[in-house]
């Protein structure tokens, strides 16, 4: 952002008012996060007496102990989510960047056809019912790991963002000279194009990774088997039915025969939320700027 | 085979032969688009059929507009249309106003470091899933334990509110939640546009003695307005589609709130999965697709009139 020193600056009073206002907004963004963390660190009996508090009442990490000790299901959901995020992101970046590269190649006669072919899907959306029926009855995705990956791999919006990025950062002459040197299309793409557009690829990768990490919709629609519950969906089930946590605990744990008795339900519920958002919030400062960059590219055209 | 067709085909084949790797590069995308976007389009016919699972969709009997008749006879049809349109309308208006105000304020702030900090924090909610946001909301709204009912309302001398059963607060809660989650994100788009404004405009205004407020009113806002128009029209193009997570997760699927939280998307989901009424669900789904398509075309037409550069097509 450019320095504003050459311009008329806002008055000290206005500046102060803005700081107060944004101070409040900042709190509004952070307090819910803080509330969840603080409840997760509170003693469960105390919570039941006094309700949720914004400060840990009678500090306790029992909820985490409970969640993690009973947590074969949680560990499994974590592992599944990481696997789906990694595989999905790689596939998404690969498919999207290849497709965008084809649309970018001005010398390719069928470029217009492929552009329209993808673009058309952004105009009309068949809606949930046909999508569901195709996924279940035609593609047979129900209750498979593919259901958690494939539907998000191709995204025309990312294709358009990446094509814009390519046309901004890649001169046509590079492709031409690679051709003259006798490089095949795939060699040109992977050896020459990819190294030059890494920041663009990183942006798409982050968008995709967030989508996969935060997804609860695909298991919500297409999964029945508990083996395929990803983290967000498991959290959804726990929130919907706190006893669910005890149920999965009862199934797995051989030691405790009365899981309900020791269940720190309220704090454990929030501990789930902290575990679910943890990686995102921790990694957030690093990838935030890439997002800003990606959005800025998107804003130029689109 | 006719001669003309042959040259056309050989034209395509020659191209395929010449640029085979490029076709191959597009192939995975094409396959996925067919699978998840084009095949479902054929499924739109379900809305005109009485689906018997044992017969399969193609062999199930046609019923004309029966499914639509049933749908529009229910009171739900009106409620879901009203909710979807009004909420999205509110999101477009308040969302853009909040984002523009945020972007202008942040860009004018002298303490650059703080402005960056505010921007980063406001962007954070965008990265949280609606499931996590629902947990956060529950920490505040839970009827017997929630922070609002146990800490804040008593201090104000107010009675606790059964948040998940009381319809009145929900329009406000849903609009606030939408603003909370997306303002930081949208502000970044406007900030990018503000950063792109040529500084000479401001210098000239300064020489003319324009106050800061006048500069904002006569330079920043007019130069942002094309982007505002585009974003608003794109929002209108999607006005028949609701943010499923917001309307399903946040109210925790509470039946008592359906009157103010049910939108077309959640209705379709519930009728399909909960009530297994595929006829009604597909009619509502079709209604949404067609209205959505018409609105996308119309709003793009208007965008193209106003600023051909910004049109989607």
Compute the number of structural domains of chain A. Answer: 1
The CATH architecture of chain B comes to Orthogonal Bundle
Strand content of chain A: under 5%
- Number of beta-strand segments of chain A: 0
Radius of gyration of chain A: 25 Å
Give me the Rg of chain B, rounded.
25 Å
**Structural domain count of chain B:** 1
What's the helical proportion of residues of chain A? over 70%
Q: What distance lies between the first and last C-alpha atoms of chain B, to the nearest angstrom?
A: 36 Å
Low-confidence residue ranges of chain A: 1-5, 254-260
CATH 4th-level superfamily of chain B: MetI-like
Pfam family, one (chain B): BPD_transp_1
Protein name (chain B): Binding-protein-dependent transport systems inner membrane component
Domain ABC transmembrane type-1 (chain B): 81-299
Membrane topology (chain B): Multi-pass membrane protein
Give a description of the structure.
The complex is a heterodimer of chains A (302) and B (313). Chain A has one domain (62-300): MetI-like fold. In chain A, 72% of the residues lie in helices and 0% in strands. Chain A is built from 15 helices and no strands. Residues 1-5 and 254-260 of chain A have low confidence and may be disordered. Chain B has one domain (65-306): Orthogonal Bundle (MetI-like fold). Chain B has helices at 3-18, 20-42, 66-73, 75-108, 112-123, 130-141, 147-155, 170-195, 199-207, 212-237, 244-249, 258-261, 264-274, 278-306. Chain B is built from 14 helices and no strands. Chain B has 313 residues and is an all-alpha fold. In chain B, helix 10 (212-237) packs across helix 14.
Please summarize what this structure is.
The complex is a heterodimer of chains A (302) and B (313). By secondary structure, chain A is mainly α.
Notable characteristics:
heterodimer; A: 302 residues; mainly alpha; MetI-like fold; 15 helices; disordered N terminus; B: 313 residues; 72% helix; globular; transmembrane helix (chain A)
């Amino acid at each position: 952002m450019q320095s504003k020193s050459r311009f008329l600056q806002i008055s000290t009073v206005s500046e102060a008012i803005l700081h107060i206002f944004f101070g409040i907004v900042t709190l509004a963004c952070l307090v819910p996060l803080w509330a969840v963390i603080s409840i997760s660190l509170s003693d469960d009996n105390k919570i039941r007496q006094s309700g949720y508090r914004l400060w840990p009442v009678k500090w306790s990490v029992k909820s985490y102990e409970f969640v993690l000790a009973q947590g074969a299901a949680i560990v499994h959901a974590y592992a599944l989510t990481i696997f789906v995020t990694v595989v999905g992101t790689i596939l998404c970046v690969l498919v999207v960047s290849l497709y965008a590269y084809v649309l970018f190649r001005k010398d390719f006669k069928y470029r217009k056809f492929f552009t329209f072919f993808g673009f058309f899907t952004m105009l009309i959306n068949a809606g949930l019912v046909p999508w569901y029926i195709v996924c279940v009855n035609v593609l047979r995705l129900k209750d498979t790991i593919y259901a958690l990956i494939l539907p998000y791999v191709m995204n025309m919006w990312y294709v358009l963002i990446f094509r814009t990025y390519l046309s901004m950062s890649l001169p046509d002459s590079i492709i031409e000279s690679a051709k003259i040197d006798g490089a095949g299309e795939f060699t040109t793409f992977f050896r020459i194009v990819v190294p030059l557009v890494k920041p663009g690829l990183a942006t798409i990768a982050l968008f995709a990774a967030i989508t996969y990490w935060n997804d609860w919709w695909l298991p919500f629609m297409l999964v029945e088997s508990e083996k395929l519950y990803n983290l967000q969906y498991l959290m959804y089930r726990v929130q919907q039915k706190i006893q669910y946590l005890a149920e999965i605990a009862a199934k797995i744990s051989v030691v405790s025969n009365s899981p309900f008795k020791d269940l720190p339900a309220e704090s454990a519920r929030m501990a789930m939320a902290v575990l679910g958002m943890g990686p995102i919030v921790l990694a957030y400062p690093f990838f935030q700027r890439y997002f800003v960059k990606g959005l800025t590219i998107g804003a130029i055209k689109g | 085979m006719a001669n003309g067709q042959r040259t056309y085909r050989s034209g395509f084949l020659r191209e395929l032969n010449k640029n085979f790797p490029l076709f191959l590069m597009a192939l995975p995308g094409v396959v996925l688009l067919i699978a998840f976007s084009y095949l479902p389009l054929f499924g739109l016919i379900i809305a005109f059929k009485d689906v018997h699972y044992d017969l399969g969709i193609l062999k199930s009997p046609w019923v004309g507009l029966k499914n639509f008749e049933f749908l529009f006879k229910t009171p739900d049809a009106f409620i879901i249309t009203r909710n979807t349109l009004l909420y999205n309308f509110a999101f477009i208006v308040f969302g853009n106003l909040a984002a523009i105000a945020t972007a202008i304020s942040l860009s004018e702030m002298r303490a650059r470091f703080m402005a960056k900090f505010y921007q980063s924090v406001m962007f954070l909610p965008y990265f949280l899933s609606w499931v996590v946001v629902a947990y956060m909301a529950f920490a505040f709204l839970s009827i017997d334990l929630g922070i609002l009912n146990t800490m804040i309302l008593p201090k104000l001398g107010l009675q606790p509110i059964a948040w998940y059963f009381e319809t009145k607060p929900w329009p406000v809660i849903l609009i606030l939640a939408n603003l909370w989650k997306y303002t930081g994100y949208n502000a970044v788009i406007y900030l990018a546009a503000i950063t792109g404004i040529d500084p000479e405009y401001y210098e000239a205004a300064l020489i003319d003695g324009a106050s800061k407020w006048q500069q904002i009113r006569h330079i920043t806002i007019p130069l942002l307005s094309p982007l505002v128009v585009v974003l608003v029209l794109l929002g209108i193009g999607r006005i028949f589609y609701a943010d499923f997570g917001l309307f399903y997760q946040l109210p925790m699927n509470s039946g008592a709130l359906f009157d103010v939280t049910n939108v077309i998307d959640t209705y379709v989901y519930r009728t399909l999965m909960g009530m297994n009424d595929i006829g009604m669900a597909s009619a509502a789904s079709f209604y949404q697709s067609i209205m959505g398509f018409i609105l996308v075309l119309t709003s793009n037409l208007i965008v193209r009139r106003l600023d051909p550069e910004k049109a989607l097509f």
